[in-house]
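Just wondering, can you check both lines?
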Amino acid sequence: NPPKDYAKWQGLAEAVVAHLVERYGKDEVLTWYFEVWNEPDISYWHGTPEEYYKLYDAAAAGVKAALPGARVGGPATTGPGGKTRDGGPDGGYKLLKGFLEHVRDTKQPLDFISFHAKGQPRIANGEVTMGINHELRDVDAGFKLIASFPEFRKLPVILSEADPEGCAACSEKMNPANAYRNGTLYPAYTAAAYARIFQLADEHDINLIAMLSWAFEFEGRDTFEGFRSLATNGIDKPVLNFFRMAAKMSGERVEVESTGAVPLDVIRETGVRGAPDVDGLATVNGRKAMVMVWNYQDRIRDDPATAANVIVNGLPAGVKRARVREWVIDETHSNAYTAWKAMGSPAQLTAAEAAELQAVGQLQEVGGAKSVAVAGGVVRLEETLPGESLRLYEVSW
């Protein structure tokens, strides 16, 4: 609800930031991003858009009073790609647009822009079909809108929720489609989605700095109950190993071309409903390249194993050998869910069962480091990618 006294709200924001500076230090807090409210276009805000703008102005003033260089932004609206029944833009788009107009016209401080993007999985005949195109439409619409404001198009953009769907607290008991969260479909989806989000940022020339998973910890619930969490009762899920893979990538993102990739315009409009998406992300940092590849389909049954030839170009002249390491997420690697089902799917775990699942739930390196030949600055790697699987290669020289 809107505050009864906006001056008191401003004072609260100032007091909180002042406390944080005292506790953690000015230099630390200057690295933080203060987002004002959450999804004010839906039931999390019972006031008008104009009252939210006033709330933002007061909060920003309080943050800046306590720490002038602090970063403040928003509006953390829901996905801007949705449509009303008459085909017009929904509330997420309208409030994001109105917010940017307000900040532009009133010269309020704005250090970053945030909004949310969600997919839309459905279940039919007992099988989940993901809706990656819905998430990408949200991103596309939001980026296009931000790019239409010359004053803001270079500001950092944060997708402060970027997920396959919206209800983290809805388990598969409540929504059977959410069973995807337990296994390899979740990390494969996330890899394919993040790659296209980067492509959309490039297409719209947007300064994208983060995509955040809106995931939680749910205590006292059954193991693998299907909440949007990265772990369940202390057991890491395969999706957490996707983030562990991503954390190994650093330096500069470099171009990836794949003959098996679903084109951006197709996946944005219809998802991955024909041939699987076999694609990758890559970074280079000094004398090390990291290449993540995946095999993804919106429906598991439509995703057969496929051969993948990974070619890394551009190693320096004179390099004859490279060192290669490899990490895998699939049905039998980095996957506690498969092991849990083999145990008989116990809702509550014994200490021995928990210890076993904690071990197999870690990101698994396969084969150990190996030396491979480099010919003309090129490293060639050949693998088979099972359906809904990911591999990360580290190539160093």
Summary: The chain has a mean pLDDT of 96. Residues 93 and 179 are 30 Å apart (CA to CA). The radius of gyration is 23 Å. Residues 185-204 form the longest helix (20 residues).
